[in-house]
Automatic annotation (TrEMBL):
Natural source organism: Scomber scombrus
Record SUPFAM superfamilies: HIT/MYND zinc finger-like, TPR-like
Domain (MYND-type): residue spans on this chain: 27-64
Keyword Metal-binding: yes
Superkingdom of origin organism: Eukaryota
One Pfam entry name: zf-MYND
Ranges in a coiled coil: none
UniProt keywords, alphabetically: Metal-binding, Zinc, Zinc-finger
Protein name: Zinc finger MYND domain-containing protein 12
GO MF annotation: an example: zinc ion binding
Length: 366
């Protein structure tokens, strides 16, 4: 559950830091000597206004007031009950930072995700200690943020620490293994070690299928990443086959979500339903399916059935995400492709969706 400061502010007021001689505070982001202080919580410090603003946008506005009890020593906090309460508050902060970082990473905002990922790791170390398996999610978040800005040397270091923590914990669950191998696969893809990338994505798929099932949308993300590697290697038939698996999985999933949505509307036509996907998830899935659609449209031997399937996925996705303009655009693409195939089994479903978009208008997503 995310927490907001009590006051709605667009930025944090900062003041010059005046400290007794011999006392030193460190910047929240870079750990260099601080010269500024947040005037709202007064327990967070920065080397300059640029780092203060980056932290405010990245995470501090969400947790400003939550930092007061854990960074302000009191007699109660020194007692056993107080220490337990502080640990619980830190655990809450870890969860908030994780959710914020994941959301920003899904939207491709890697630089903005950095403060949340950094704080998540520092707070996790405070709670769980160094070199423990509980730190792995934070290591992976920070690695993903750095990968997005091209800091691959630091990514390799962070993933090495995550891998060491996992190796020391035989009881580590499938979900952690799948996320670690996915991150390692992405690193090897970025550095051009494609065979090693394929090996890690294969392990990612195995552990994800053990945790979530073979037909899960989580698992199929591994197929998509593997397909991208095969495409880089020029192995287009293999890439195409894997992209097809991803599209089929998402089509089945979105069709089920859409069917549930229609039933809910039929039960209560006046009910204002929330979007079925949040913004971050929409952007992530749209990017993946958009890549597959572009791959098929640019293929010299176009597969109209596959184009119809993927475009139908995107139409359903954006209808459920409350963007009728995009839903109509992708729906029209899907319909045109399906009509090139006599008696195509998706034509009726696509036409029904286009009719639904026109009769159940939604406000456009920002």
């Amino acid at each position: 559950m995310e927490a907001e400061p009590q006051d709605v502010r667009t930025t944090s007021k900062i003041i010059p830091l005046a400290l007794p001689k011999g006392t030193e505070k460190l910047c929240e982001l870079c750990q260099r000597r601080a010269h500024l202080q947040c005037n709202w919580c007064r327990v967070t410090f920065y080397c300059d206004a640029e780092h203060q603003q980056a932290d405010w946008i990245g995470i501090h506005q969400r947790i400003c007031q939550l930092l007061l009890p854990i960074r302000t020593p009191t007699l109660f906090s020194l007692q056993r009950a107080g220490r337990i309460e502080i640990q619980l508050k830190k655990a809450e902060l870890i969860e908030i930072c994780r959710l914020v970082a994941e959301s920003k990473l899904s939207e491709g905002k890697h630089q903005e995700a950095m403060p949340a990922a950094q704080f998540c790791l520092r707070c996790s170390i405070d709670v769980h200690g160094p070199s423990t398996v509980q730190l792995v999610p934070a290591y992976l978040l920070l690695a993903d943020a750095n990968m997005g800005i091209g800091n691959l040397a630091l990514v390799a270091e962070l993933l090495s620490q995550a891998e060491w923590a996992v190796l020391k914990s035989p009881e580590c669950g499938h979900a952690v293994h799948h996320k670690l191998h996915r991150s390692l696969g992405r690193l090897h893809t970025a550095t051009g070690n494609l065979e090693e990338a394929l090996l890690n994505f294969a392990n990612d798929i195995y552990f994800a299928s053990e945790e979530y099932g073979l037909d899960s949308t989580v698992t199929c993300r591994g197929y998509f990443l593997m397909a991208e590697v095969f495409a880089k290697q020029g192995k287009m038939p293999v890439a195409r086959s894997l992209y097809s698996e991803v599209a089929q999985t998402w089509h089945s999933h979105l069709a089920k979500v859409l069917k549930t949505h229609i039933k809910n509307v039929q039960k209560n036509p006046n009910l204002l339903l929330e979007p079925s996907f949040d913004k971050a998830h929409l952007v992530e899935v749209d990017g993946m399916l958009g890549t597959i659609l572009e791959f098929e449209q640019n293929n010299s031997r176009k597969d109209s059935a596959q184009i119809a399937l993927v475009a139908h996925c995107l139409a359903m996705l954006w209808f459920l995400g409350r963007d009728d303009l995009k839903a109509l655009g992708f729906g029209s693409t899907a319909l045109q492709a399906s009509q090139l195939i006599p008696n195509h089994d998706l034509t009726e479903s696509i036409q029904s969706l286009l009719q639904l978009v026109q009769t159940e208008p939604h406000p456009r997503c920002d």
